[in-house]
Each structure stands twice: as structure tokens, then as C-alpha cells.
Amino acid sequence: MKIKILKNRTVSGILLFSAIVLIFTSCNKALPDATPIIYPPVNNTTTSIGAMLNSDTTFSFFKAAATKVGMLAQFSDTTKVFTAFIPNNSAFRASGIPSLSVVNALPPATLGGIVGYSIIAGEQYLSTTIPTTFPNIQLPTSITIGTLPGTILNLNLSTFPSVSATGFYDNNIPVVMPDLKMSNGVVHVVAAIVAPPSQLLKDAMYNNPNLTFFKAAVARADSGQTGLNKIDSLLGYAVTNMTVLAPSDAAFQSLLYGLIYGALLQQGLMPAQAGPTATALSGSPTVFSNPLLFPYITASTVRGILVYHFLATDQGAGFQPNIRVFSNNFTSTPAFYTTLINSVVPTHPGILAQATFTGPFVTQLQFTGLGTFPPGGAPYSGTPANAISLDNHCVNGVYYIIDQVLLPQ
């Protein structure tokens, strides 16, 4: 049951440094000058967003949050302009916040995150002005998280609106009432709170109890690598947009069992001996650091598998992990998406993905790899991997936990 990951290729030389040194301003670029927008005939051009929040009781939860953190006044400032993705009271309740008393009991940092992440300052984006290009657009919110080293350029958390055949979204949250035009901007009412991310991919994934094998696999894949060429460094690099498909512990165990079992049979062990031994060896993340298994689980093999789980695109400077795809950005029609494998195999077809929607929400998301296990099947004929955890949003990307390891060949 030997698996060949990249025949006649090597992935140990994939230069992640070039893949992660992105243009900082792509995340925090200055907003362009406002251009005139023709609004629908029904609007509130004499009423500010703040006045709407003060008068419309369906927004009383958001008003209380904005008041507590001292941000309500800016919504009434008619010298400024905003795009705001605002949750009404129903959206707060859908997010597990049932009452004003609960809102008022939340820490100011939490409320400031909710309110600040809803605001895009300096521009007015109607649903009709959001491009339908895949997967979304990136806009800076009002939450500043620091400055670039050696500069005074602020880093702001980004939000990612999108418009597709299934609806209008901010990140993965549907907009239920778009294009409420006010005198100082436009409001889009969302179905739930669009929560700001608080962790880097590295921290969130390494602390996930279902990704202990993934963490150990990264360490094995990074063997012999240095600096920013490490996958570990990529996951910890704040100024990126990534989409990572992370196999669960059970998914890795299943694949590793097959690899080790096949190797033991080739060494002459009988199945009755090989099976229990393979089970024991594949049952712990230490399988990746066991020197006895290094000939069979090489660093380049593990690296080849892992980089296949990072979506990437080529925008003229080689394939980079520069794409943040939420579940609703995938389509209900099966489609191919390139990955970091394309850094060394540019013509690789990538990963096949398909989303199932119930209304505006994704209820199933599947990914299929080129290779099969056991090997020998037709391309993309393997059982699809199911995403068992969707849209885990982080500062530098989004990750999914999937129930199978995807193989690039």
C-alpha cells in the first residue's frame, strides 16, 4: 500500500517565503476615493445611521453595545461615511445573546469587537457594487490590531463581503436586509453577528484537540526547512489570507495505518503481526517523530501532502496561499481549486470542491483529491472528504477540519 505523492518531483524545495511575503497593503490598503453611487429611490438620505439606531427598537441590542463602548456618536457623524453590517436584535438572539441584560453584561472588549468589526469607514458599498468575482472582496474594518514593523501603517482586521447566486454575505453570514441608505452611509442587516477573529491560524489549529496529528505533521514536513520557508511560520504569519483544509486526527490515523501496514508487509511480517503493530504505531502523533519510520514517512512526503491542503492562486508571482474562502464562496457545482502543490506542479488540477446549500447556508461541504487510497483508482474517484468543522475564522485565514487526508496523486 505504498503511496507515491509526487512522482519525479520534490516538494521539500517549495519556497513558502515567496508565498507568504504578500503586499501588506492588500490587507490594509487605503480606501479609494468615494465615487458617486446611484441609490434606490427608497432611502433615508436625511437620517443618519446613528439616528436610525436611536429610533428603531429592532436595533436596541446593537445600540446598547455601541453606547457602552462609546461608539454610538460616530454613527451620527454626518461628516463621515460608512458601510455597516449591523445585526438587529434577532441576529443577536441567533448568535446566543438573548437580551439587553446579557448585552450589557458582556466585557467592553467583546462589545467593541462586535461593533468595530461591523464598520467599514470611508466608503459606501451597496450590494450592487460588490463584485461577484471569486471568492470575495477584502475590506478593512475599524478594528486596528497594530502597525507594520518599522512603519506607521495601521493593520486593520479585514472583513470579506461577497455576492453570488446564493445571496449576499459578510464573511459567511447572510445579509437579510441589504442597502438601507442613510445620510452618512449604507447599512446591511445581517442574520447573525459577524464576529471578528481573535487568533492566528497557528494558535487556533495547534490548540484544537482534533488536530494534534496535523500539528505533528507540520513539524515533520518542516524538517530541514528554515525561516519563513516553514509551514509553521506560514501559519503564524499575520498578514496573509489563507484557506487550510486540515485533516482530523482520525483521518491521519487511517492514512498512516495503511502506510505503515504496507511497509511492514514489504518487510516480511505476516498480516496478523503487521496489523496490531501498525495500529500501535499510528495511534499517536509521535508517529511523525519516530526515527524508525522516517524511511517510510519522509519529510518530503508529508510536506507534499500538507501543501495540497492549502488553497493558492497565481497572480503573476507564482502560486501563493493568498485566498480566504468561506463555505458560502464555494459553489453547488463541483469545481477545481488550485493549491500550493501548484508551486511545483503548475498544471496540477487541484482539489475538487462542492458545497450543498439549504437556503443561504452551507449544510455540507466536500473535497476530493486527485489521488486515491489505496492507490490505483481513477483521478478524483476517491470518497470525498467531508468538512466536519466549517469556517473557523482566524486573523490570517480560515480553516476547515476534514475527515480524510487528500492526496495530490
Architecture overview:
The protein folds into 2 domains: 212 residues, FAS1 domain; 166 residues, FAS1 domain (Roll). Helices cover 27% and strands 23% of the residues. It has 14 helices and 16 strands. Strand 6 and strand 7 form a beta hairpin. Helix 4 crosses helix 8 and helix 10 crosses helix 14. The N terminus is likely disordered.
Explain briefly what this protein structure is:
With about 400 residues, this protein is an alpha+beta fold. The chain has two domains: about 15-25 and about 200-400, FAS1 domain, CATH 2.30.180; about 25-190, FAS1 domain. It has helices at about 15-20, 25-30, 50-55, 60-70, 70-75, 90-95, 100-105, 110-115, 200-205, 210-220, 230-235, 250-265, 270-280, 300-305; strands at about 80-85, 120, 140-145, 155-160, 160-165, 165-170, 175-180, 185-190, 240-245, 315, 320, 335, 350-360, 360-370, 385-395, 395-400.
Shape: elongated
- Structural class per helix/strand content? alpha+beta
Beta strands, count = 16
Helix content: 25-40%
Mean pLDDT: 87
Number of domains: 2
Distance between the amino and carboxyl termini? 14 Å
Q: In CATH's first tier, which class of the largest domain applies?
A: Mainly Beta
In CATH, the topology of the largest domain is named: FAS1 domain
- Name given to the CATH homologous superfamily of the largest domain: FAS1 domain
Query: Mind telling me the C-alpha Rg?
Result: 24 Å
Tally of helical runs: 14
Strand order of the largest sheet: 2-1-8-7-6-5
Sheet having the most strands: 6 strands, mixed
Level-2 CATH architecture of the largest domain: Roll
Strand content: 15-25%
Low-confidence stretches: 1-42
